[in-house]
Amino acid sequence: TYAKSETCALAECPPGSYAPDLAKDVAHCLDCAFGTFSNGKTDVCHPFTCPGGNEPNTKASYDGDCVGCRLGFFSASNTSISCEPAECPKSTQASPNATSADDCSPCPALQTSIGGSALCGAPNCTAGSGPTQDGQSCEVCESGTFSPGHGAPCRKVKCAPGHTPAKGATDMATDCVPCPEGTTNLGGTSTECTPCPQGTYSNATAGTNTCTPTACELGWEAKTGAKHKRDCVICGQGFFSNTQTCQPTQCPLNQASAKGAHDAIGNCTACPLGYLSEGGQSPCRPAECAPGYSLPPNATQCQACQPGTFGKGLAMP
């Protein structure tokens, strides 16, 4: 109390505090003990309890002035004491607002804990590695993913066209390597380098990141997965090319084309004497005439020998 105009009056204290005996003014107010509250002014401190998972607020100003236990701690129902450390198994942590020592929840994916009152956390991985699914250790990021380390999970890399992510990447965009010669990809989150389509080539190390048309000579076609502009092979017998890819010839009956043809019909020549061809892309093959038959010049099939002549068969006249 303090004296004013020779009349004694109680000091008026702020909420959460009280005036001890002989208090002269508000400067002499004291905080209420933990687990008690005061509405302030001339009120005294009163005990109160909190529901499970909570503890009394410091300088409590009303009945039920409670705060939740911080993670890793618990409190039982109707308590007036501080939250206590949890006793959780390994790879778990105290549940939010835990009400018992064993009120625990599993750690989230990619995290773990040592148990007790410890919180879940990811391992401190090096750059290019991320935590395993159970959070117990680290593993190198797979191709197509990256991690800056320090427990960050591996996430997808975005590369420029013609490039693929390096294994163990540490950066989202810069840890990319060129696709092997003759292959490419679309970039972005695409990770697999695939062979260039027929008639195109790529060579990222030479600055050709995407599949570019080849420049093969007539009668030649680009190799599958071509690595440079003239990475070509000659068209085989029965095929021609004037568009970077070999296609079947369309030779007339008893004609065929040789390797390196560049026209569907224009490079066809007549079969030699004793040979036949069905035309199209078929080659010239020896005629297989029966005895008494032969293949005269310009004939398209075996014919019977004239009277007074004979044939030994096959293609013999």
Total DSSP E strands:
32
Q: What structural class is derived from the secondary structure elements?
A: mainly beta
From the alpha carbons, calculate the radius of gyration and give it in angstroms. 46 Å
Give the DSSP E fraction (strand runs of 2 or more residues): 25-35%
User: Please, how many helices?
Assistant: 0
Largest sheet at a glance? 2 strands, antiparallel
Give the low-confidence spans. Answer: 1-5
Overall geometry comes to rod-shaped
Mean pLDDT: 86
Instruction: Give helix % range.
Output: under 10%
Task: Please outline what is shown here.
This protein has strands at about 1-5, 5-10, 15-20, 30, 35, 45, 55, 65-70, 75, 85, 90-95, 105, 130, 140, 145, 155, 165, 175-180, 185, 195, 200-205, 210-215, 220, 230-235, 240, 245-250, 255, 270, 275, 285, 295, 305. The chain has about 325 residues and is an all-beta fold.
Defining key terms:
317 residues, mainly beta, two-stranded antiparallel ribbon, two-stranded antiparallel sheet, 32 strands, rod-shaped, Tyrosine-protein kinase ephrin type A/B receptor-like domain-containing protein
What does this structure look like?
The protein is mainly β. The chain has a domain at 287-317. The protein is built from no helices and 32 strands. It has strands at 2-4, 7-9, 17-18, 30-31, 36-37, 46-47, 54-56, 66-68, 73-74, 84-85, 92-94, 104-106, 129-131, 138-140, 145-146, 155-156, 163-165, 176-178, 183-184, 194-195, 200-203, 208-213, 220-222, 232-234, 239-240, 247-248, 255-257, 268-270, 275-276, 285-286, 293-294, 303-304. Strands 1-2 form a two-stranded antiparallel sheet. The chain has a two-stranded antiparallel sheet with strand order 3-4. A hairpin with an 8-residue loop joins strand 5 and strand 6 (46-47). The chain is rod-shaped. The chain starts with a strand and ends in a 13-residue tail after the last strand. The model is unreliable at 1-5 (pLDDT under 50). This is Tyrosine-protein kinase ephrin type A/B receptor-like domain-containing protein.
